[in-house]
Amino acid sequence: MADSDDPKSLTIASRQQPASADRVPCKECPLIHCRGLSAPDEGQRAWIEAFKSSEARYVRGEQVLRQGVRATRLFTVLEGVLIRYRLLEDGRRQIVNFLFPGDLVGLQAAFEAELTHSVEAMTDVRLCVFPRDRFFDLAVSHPKLSFDLTWMAAREEAALEDHLVSLGQRNAQERLAYLAVFLVQRGAATGVSREGTLRLTVTQSQIADMLGLSLVHTNRSLQALRRLKLVDWTLSTISVHDMEAARSFAQMDGDPYIPRPYI
Amino acid sequence: MADSDDPKSLTIASRQQPASADRVPCKECPLIHCRGLSAPDEGQRAWIEAFKSSEARYVRGEQVLRQGVRATRLFTVLEGVLIRYRLLEDGRRQIVNFLFPGDLVGLQAAFEAELTHSVEAMTDVRLCVFPRDRFFDLAVSHPKLSFDLTWMAAREEAALEDHLVSLGQRNAQERLAYLAVFLVQRGAATGVSREGTLRLTVTQSQIADMLGLSLVHTNRSLQALRRLKLVDWTLSTISVHDMEAARSFAQMDGDPYIPRPYI
DNA sequence: TCGGCGCGATGTCAAATGACACTGCCCGGT
DNA sequence: ACCGGGCAGTGTCATTTGACATCGCGCCGA
């Protein structure tokens, strides 16, 4: 079920991450070009630049944050995709959400609480690092950023609400269609994918752990969707031929496009 | 499935809610006495008082917010319990969360987005009303409150994460035990329930719609839990005899007590 | 006093989903 | 060339969960 406990990924995950010397200045932030993300203005960007302490890189499979610890750093995704998941004591794993460029990683750390989930890189990633202890300064000195932060938290909450509806009300095929559409659109909005297709390595085991299905049933349902020509999801590629058909198959409503602020 | 479309509740729900003349001054806010809630200080309370525009009352079954509209007001729960749910086009309903005193209702409204869920009163409730358009002032003029707001959003997100794990990884009985423990503890923290028992009218149909189970299966699983002497859940009362046993049965970890700020 | 209604409970059967054991394929290391 | 590991796919059978029909009970209003 949880495939994160194989020896290799553990040893990789536990080595300390050196702060990379080179860092992108915020005024040249590559995320500016993402439709789907609304960039902060000049003043805010200066503030963010000062707040940002460094950059970090992780390779696919590495753990960025570990459930149960009190983290001292927050991150923001500059490049790549990650997952956020929780482990139960008996080894069951629930993947809670995927993280794309612009997303905030580890907001819980800001409130000196223990993390309730782990975060793992799905691709090689670059993250912006922010110190937790200066977090409160943010709200004081730049209200608009603080507002954006609340916005981001609310947005993430809405995403979880969507997933919750999926797990609670949709059957296996609908869930798969929903997740495929969700990921492809997230990818499109953050510059990771072309229209209708997302190149991202996701194993069926990970899909199963996200959707609350068994591995075998996930496999069979994926095949069914492939036969229906709705979603073609392979190890390295998710492609949705007819977005509207897939959306209606999965009973998705609401507007897919709401530009999000980021930090 | 969705029982909210019976004619009676609809007519009740659609009448306009007169702003009640009498309102509790924030300095006498009854929530001060809730362990489980950390009260704002004097200065903050003054600011909240100025921000608060009125109070509203709803009776059990009334709709407070409706999915798909752009609300102009935010609420805070002063007294009572509500549910937040989403309807799918074919009538399936997913209850997303329960709202207890101190909780924020309709944060999405702050970002001029369409609401993705409806909110309905489970008991007679009293709400504090805040205008949406003065919301941004909050962040500017009182950073600590803005910080608390982010905190609350993050807390709600964590709760949804818990529910997501439940729907994704737990079987019917575990989900029921989890939900019972969750509700009783939420009730205890907000002064609604005595230790181990919560008096709150929840139909099995509502439980089913929260946990993604069929009505019949919910019924049978509840009976099973009753036979196991873990949870006794009737229409009007939830009682958990042995909290620790129930928590471990449902594979719940983490600290149940984190005092939350409120507004 | 009668009927309607909301809610819980049950019996029976069907469908969805899971568990387990096994195969084939690809790929990288030696 | 061989081995081992990760991953998708399959066959078979068990378990969980859902669908549908029905009953009992308490409540309330005509």
UniProtKB/TrEMBL annotation, chains A, B:
Matches recorded under PROSITE patterns: CNMP_BINDING_3, HTH_CRP_2
InterPro entries: cNMP-bd_dom, cNMP-bd_dom_sf, Env_Response_Regulators, HTH_CRP, RmlC-like_jellyroll, WH-like_DNA-bd_sf, WH_DNA-bd_sf
Keyword DNA-binding in annotation: yes
MF annotations from Gene Ontology: DNA binding; DNA-binding transcription factor activity
Gene3D superfamilies per the UniProt record, alphabetical: Jelly Rolls, Winged helix-like DNA-binding domain superfamily/Winged helix DNA-binding domain
UniProt domain HTH crp-type: residue ranges: 170-244
Keywords: DNA-binding, Transcription, Transcription regulation
UniProt keyword annotation of Lipid metabolism present: no
Pfam families membership: cNMP_binding, HTH_Crp_2
GO cellular component: cytosol
SMART domains documented for this protein: cNMP, HTH_CRP
Start and end residues of each Cyclic nucleotide-binding domain: 58-138
UniProt name for this protein: Crp/Fnr family transcriptional regulator
Organism: Novosphingobium olei
